[in-house]
Specification:
single chain, alpha+beta, 9-stranded antiparallel beta sheet, 5-stranded antiparallel beta sheet, 13 helices, 35% helix
Amino acid sequence: MKKTVLREYARLIVRCGVNIQKGQEVMIYADLDQPEFVQMVVEEAYKAKAKKVTVEWNYQPLQKVRVRYESVKTLGTVPEWVKAKQEHLCEVLPARIHLISEDPDGLKGINMEKLAKANQMAYPILKPYHDRRENKEQWCIAAVPGAAWAKKVFPGMRTSQAMEKLWEAILFTSRVTDDPVKAWQEHNADLHDRCAYLNSLKIRSLHYTADNGTDLTVGMIPQGEWKGGGDTSLQGVFFNPNIPTEECFISPMKGEAEGIVYSTKPLSYRGILIENFSVRFEKGKAVEVKAEKGEDVLKTMIAMDEGAAYLGECALVPQHSPICESGILFYNTLFDENAACHLALGMGFADTIQDFQNKTLEECRELGINDSMIHEDFMIGCDSMNIDGICEDGKVVPIFRGGNWAF
């Protein structure tokens, strides 16, 4: 891939993604697959007047080794230096850039039960730090190709060809055009207008149906509002948290979901694929899950804490999205969730509550926002999906027909 194009992508992530402010610290989290591109992002961050840029590297094989040899107690212990680091993050509120390229099967064979227990131990210690930063910082998740990921997506090609093909797909779906900033401004405007219309309907529940057997009704929070595209932090900085993104989303009312829903794409959870699964809800809670592959992992996921079995997000994505129309199954949630309507189990978003900036996080959760240590999106959209909105006045409004917007 031409370096000039990659430089444009790096600049897009820095300027339009996290929108680094002069004098701000920056944290970049990346796998080992694309060090040259990470260097480009670091350079662009400094050109945007970042005060300091820190890169933290991740390597899946090392994670597997740690989980294999360390005890649950050791894995789950949060040392004092990590607490000090979290305190620093709360004080300086750095812009966070996550560059993902991991192998979808990279943690296959890991002791998921052991890892889950360790995460459950550490989470109560780390949660207060995360809550203090909620909605105050800018962050952006974007992607770069990894060799194993590219071969998973394009198995019939040589590694070099697959890497180039995945670069092309990432850049196309991320709107890295001749003028990517303008393209994103136009895209954000479209998503904003769609959210404004959805908010005007005062929807109190969504009813999903599809030919695959999906029949699910999900309740909405009366004070909730739809969001999509860019967002503004409590510090007043506009940023784009996901590159790419195609969704209009909302956090539903905890405890109000009835029926069954079927997945339409695999879910990669902590490097393990869960495929062809269904989730049945009663009184908002996932009470039964079935999967052709990864069922035990799915059951572990929804048992992580009390909120893990409840919904935290409903997102609408048309089949006419660029990612869906590419025909590529990415085996990566950042892309696959933007190719289809999806739901998320676990944590909801406090900033989908009207006037959230004048409420505490606890007040938002009291209104119905779910709280959990996980937030896992899974794809349910297909070309037979219909969605109706049942409004405050009882009127039923078509939202989706045949997998696409009905307005």
